[in-house]
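Hi, here's the filled form for the chain we discussed.

Project: internal
Contact: R.S.
Residues: 172
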Amino acid sequence: MLATGVRIGEALAVAWPEVDLEAATVDVSRTLIRLTGVGLVRKSTKTEAGERRLILPRFALEMLRERNPDGDAMGPVFPDTLGGWRDPSNTRRALRDARGSKGFAWVTSHVFRKTCATVLDGAGQSPRAIADQLGHAQVSMTQNFYYGRRIANPGAASALDAWHDREDESHG
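And the returned structure, exactly as it came back:
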């Protein structure tokens, strides 16, 4: 989730045929949800914008190659203990259990998604590119809810100095 910014249900819905280890890509077009009276369902993403092909960073590609060294697996990339689809609710619970409650209660599965957006923003990616990575149709959703707030804008002082210097030169 940190490597791609996908939602937990999207990550758990990825099957090996949707991962291209040679091209370093993953097709994200499904999500896992639990329907009352039906059980766990692998369905298409919420919106058309949610269907996307993502380029995997090197660290994710290395992890995936370790999970599928022969490149011939066919089932879920992140299976449950029986090899089937892993329930997002159970996975969230396992994350809560692993992190504990003292000092790390803020760490949820969504933190990885938000961290991905914040890292891409800090690296100068455009808001549209980040929205596309996260599967958002509206850039405003990405900007309003997914970017980390910066205490200080490192480029603000330089930009204002440059403007001031130009103004001084033109008036002086």
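Let me know if anything looks off before we file it.
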